[in-house]
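ARCHIVE RECORD
Type: protein–small molecule complex
Small molecule: iron/sulfur cluster
Source of inputs: curated submission
Record status: active
Notes field left blank by submitter.
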Amino acid sequence: MELIKVNQSIEKNADFIKEVGLESGQPVQKCYQCGKCTAGCPVAFAMDYPPQQVIRMVQLGMKDELLKSNTIWICSTCHTCSTRCPCEVEITHVMDTLRIMAGKSGATPAGKAKYVETMYNALLSTVKSYGRTYEVGLVLQNNLKSGKLFNGADMGMPMFQKGKLQLMPSKIQGAAEVARIFDEVRKMEGGVK
Ligand code: SF4
Ligand code: SF4
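STRUCTURE (tokenized, with ligand):
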């Protein structure tokens, strides 16, 4: 069954490897499955497909499975895999590319990865509004979207008491330029949210 599924993916998404290679700028075809990336990845245990397998799935055209995977959201962009790869594949860029593709395709991750995606989008929205992160706004947005209104309150209160959290947001100089960058990128991407 699995073999049939892989064959179907190769036929259906023959250009996927080319597309990911071009978008990420990485020679994904060079990967020979040594496994050094997975061996060094600190969060591989939480991924549905470890980094080595992600690259293999790109080579095999398994686009649907990858864009729905939790791996692309669990990846913490730490670059450990990239520094270990003997073929100089910057796997981190491949993960970025797959996240962008997932966003454009409307594929939504499930389980804990959904929480990561929500947090990711909330973070970008505070950067767009203020030119920097605004932690309280970030947590509020995330809690409203996830329906867990008091999530993180136990950590937030001690941080607030120690003056580590600002209740009100502050904008950086040049916040308008940052917002313009977001708008320009949005336009380049065809208005995809
Ligand atoms: S960049 Fe992502 S895939 Fe690579 S080692 Fe770090 S968490 Fe793992
Ligand atoms: S370290 Fe590089 S060559 Fe080895 S499996 Fe990972 S991507 Fe492939």
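CURATOR ANNOTATION: Residues 40-41, 43, 51, 75-81, 91-92, 95 surround iron/sulfur cluster (ligand 1) (CB under 6 Å).
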